[in-house]
Amino acid sequence: MRTYTYHHIVGFEETNLVGNVYYVNHLKWQGRCREMFLHDHAPAILAQLEQGLALVTIRCACDYFLELVAFDHITISMRLGAIAQNRITLLFDYLRTTPTGEELIARGEQQVGCMLRDGESMRPTPIPGVLYEALKQFSEP
């Protein structure tokens, strides 16, 4: 299965007083991975975002298995879990690179709704074709 990957090196600012990565950073990295996916595979969506399209995070979750510390090298792998109406479910695996290979650190999930700004409110809108086509390349079998 093909996944989109985002590479990251943990910095001190992402750790807490104990020295491990503060849990909310995993969710931040999901967002960064999603943004870089749009940059790399659906750059035309940026113009639509300026014209009122909104990609709204409806739900996000993360299951943590192992701790991370400063200077850990991690890869966040993203794939499409499902598409239903105007909603996209993205699945994430967090892998730490070690001298002997990779180890699974966490798993995450994010549901995104495609919305169109209408004055002060928003209404559901279909998934833009350019985004749909880009996501299909990274779908689960």
Automatic annotation (TrEMBL):
Protein name in the entry: 4-hydroxybenzoyl-CoA thioesterase
Taxonomic classification: Bacteria, Bacillati, Chloroflexota, Ktedonobacteria, Ktedonobacterales
Pfam family for this entry, one: 4HBT_2
